[in-house]
Fold this protein.
Amino acid sequence: MSINQLLPTARHVLRLLFPRSCPSCHAEFQPGHAAACFDNVWEDDGWCRTCRLQIDAQNSDRCQSCAAVLAQPSPYSRGCASCFRQDLPFNLALSVHNYQGLLQQLVIQAKNAGDETLMSQLGRLLGQEIKKHHQTADIDLMVPIPTHWKRQFFSKGFHGPSLIAQNIEKMTGIPQSQRILRAVKPTLKQGTLSRTARLQNVRNAFVCRHPNKVAGRSVMLIDDVMTSGATLIEATRMLKQAGAKQVVVAVIARATSAD
Ligand SMILES: [Zn+2]
Ligand SMILES: [Zn+2]
């Protein structure tokens, strides 16, 4: 029996011992449970094929400046229709997909329920996207966007960006540190503000506590959703002020409607 014949059998045995279900629709991948479900698992990453195809942007064109997944290639030399006027400071921007449909539902669900398992699984999807670009991006360090302690107090310890970064660290080996940036200003919720007001709201919201760990290095900022990009722009400003060589941003989802 060849290794190619043995692998599916080994997977079958593993799933029999450790049955799992899709994080989105909860279809169970268990031999004997439903043959269609078992065949439906997406390359062993935990999602069913049906959900994964809705979440994943596959090989669509993406804007390297703002991470938007584009319906067609951008006509601009830098940026896309959503961001070309903003001259975003990121060296590269990555996302799983746009903030829409099933991915949007799952991000909202994870954040509202403080669901660490679901946010971790979303983080692993981003990890796969980063792995595709890791060599080109050449990242030294990941920094999750911090939350001010006053807001963190009400989220009972749940912090999406840190969970995402921890999962990407496990997958890629890129170290992450939650101690590099500190949120020093209790900002208003960005959702209700205009783009200019958002930039003003987050101005001086962060300090870089360890410039020596950032200077001359390539840093990847991690957040759950990028909308106007104001928070990530301000964090990038602080990292570059501390001497970062380049700043890449990676988010689960990119919302373009508020631009
Ligand atoms: Zn599913
Ligand atoms: Zn763009």
In short: Confidence is low (pLDDT under 50) at residues 32-36.
